[in-house]
Amino acid sequence: MREKSQAPTMKDVAREAGVALGTVSKVVNGLPVGDAYRIRVEEAIKKLNYHVNSYAQGLKADRTYTAALLIPNTYTPFFADLVHHINLALLRRNYRMLLCCTDFDLNLEQEYVRMARQNKVDGIIGLTYNPNLSIEENTPFVSIDRAIGPGIPCVASDNFAGGQLAAEKLFDLGCRHVAFLRTGSSLTNEPNKRKAGFENGCLARGLSYEMKILNDGDSYDEFERFLREHITDGRLLFDGIFCVTDTLAHTVIRMLKGLRFRVPKDVQVIGFDGVRYFDEYVCSTIVQPVPEIAQMCVDLLLQENMPAKPPLVCLPVSYAAGGTTREEG
Amino acid sequence: MREKSQAPTMKDVAREAGVALGTVSKVVNGLPVGDAYRIRVEEAIKKLNYHVNSYAQGLKADRTYTAALLIPNTYTPFFADLVHHINLALLRRNYRMLLCCTDFDLNLEQEYVRMARQNKVDGIIGLTYNPNLSIEENTPFVSIDRAIGPGIPCVASDNFAGGQLAAEKLFDLGCRHVAFLRTGSSLTNEPNKRKAGFENGCLARGLSYEMKILNDGDSYDEFERFLREHITDGRLLFDGIFCVTDTLAHTVIRMLKGLRFRVPKDVQVIGFDGVRYFDEYVCSTIVQPVPEIAQMCVDLLLQENMPAKPPLVCLPVSYAAGGTTREEG
DNA sequence: TTGTATGCGTTATCAT
DNA sequence: ATGATAACGCATACAA
User: Fold this and answer.
1) pLDDT, tens digit, for every residue of B68-79?
2) How distant is C1' of D2 from CA of B57, in Å?
3) What percent of chain B lies above the pLDDT cut of 70?
4) Which domains does chain A have, with CATH numbers?
5) A-chain residues within 8 Å CB-CB of B73?
6) What is the per-residue burial (b if ≥16 Cβ within 10 Å, else e) of B124-145?
7) Above 70 in pLDDT, residue B305?
């Protein structure tokens, strides 16, 4: 591979089998060929250990059977799950995956879009944060969690319903005064709807709530201050807390324990994402349907003649108890 | 990209700029060209939004600037870290990464090797389990954690030294009778040296130890039985346990708590890998140098004229306290 | 049914 | 320094 191409080509196979080039091509592509010829060709292929050069194929067909996945990293559990399931979904369609970790670098995101196009991938699936990401016409693109522009479908969990579900669960579990804590990108994206859904769910049940929303630069200490401000006579005013992500929930639970409150006895906590460590949920949580998101992204990307791609697809979330709420039994 | 190639080619650029094809190629590749021409070509490229077709490039150069990574999955933390750092290391050399998740499927591993070769990647980095994995000549391959064969370098942590380090730490932390617990592939691979290193470290210090090694099919319950067998008068005979991975350590710690032993007060536990959740180590552990492993794999893979590739490279591990040992202070 | 010839987009070797 | 042309490996329209 490194040196002057010593890999056998169709020409070599043809010579070995004593047939014409086109015949070999047909055998390789499963087109009808006389049995006698076919066998000789197949033997020659085995003997020479021939493999088609998919770059020549791609050059010819203008199709590469490769898709690029743009994602911040692979070690955040939610991202890792996405990578895995998108990889599997692509594999089911006989597609290969070019992985592009962006590390939340906006320029790198753009650079990868350029690279991906230059590398002639058949399409791109991206979970990106660059508000000005420029995607050229006729580059099939499916976005995760963020509406990017007209003609580019966005796939996400039903974040609004997830927020509602969190409110419903906390209410049903007996909470009467709850809090919503949020941090993360202030960019307009789907996960932001968790807040709206939660408010909606609280209002529908007459469940009183307060919110603490951090801005981009703020320290997590702000949350601890917020909690301290809501302690009266050693008691926390909240009996339930909904955190915008499991990661935040994890941090908040530590804070609560540091303040000598017991979870879930004194205060119940629900997170969002469905992060699992060692096969267990790290907290009670709203679970994102990652396998379904992955499958939907791939289907939308590779859909051949879909006249009108849906601009936004929201997939149903579910609730999972994870030890930070007081379920029966 | 889907339809009859409407992307501009060098020919289009040449026509637009009123120069010859070869001149455009030179501009694109940074070869010397008269300034007047260069500017006209650059403007034409901008205007047409031209991108080189790297498949045509690959066809010509027999080089694709793409490497394949074979790994069981992306959600196991150690693998996720590897994927991320290998991706970054490849990027630094301007290489793209084709990710291939094998799910521990031996046939799939072999299939991916074939696909990778067919896809004309410049090389493969693989963490594989197929003992008979067949890698064709002149396919650059670097293996992680397992010696595959002559001419194929293997990169791993210094697992032996890691085992020694675990013994040393337990001893220094006051342990006087310890246990080693192991499960996982019975395949000959580098991580198996953890056991030998640990024994060596214990013997060197006169630290008495016992071992419990599970076979491939055995249930984790065997470990619990082993622990129960070593309880006398309600006291555990071990004051230190070294687990072959952090995942196993996590399970064992749960067992110990279930048996009403306190970690680290009654018994200290050290794992292996350096798995972090929410930025914290899940237990005291021997940390694998993942960024260095990643960099080494890439360096070895892309090393141009390395006459003798080293058969085995072991990189230094380190110890990190993670709350399951009794450090000072 | 099988063989031949052309072109995909690029690079490199030539003349000019 | 620049322009024409062949070749990379494959698929396919067309001729045999």
Assistant:
1) 999 999 999 999
2) 22
3) 96
4) 10-52 (1.10.260.40), 64-157+290-315 (3.40.50.2300), 159-288 (3.40.50.2300)
5) 84
6) bbbbbbbeebebeeebbbbbbb
7) no
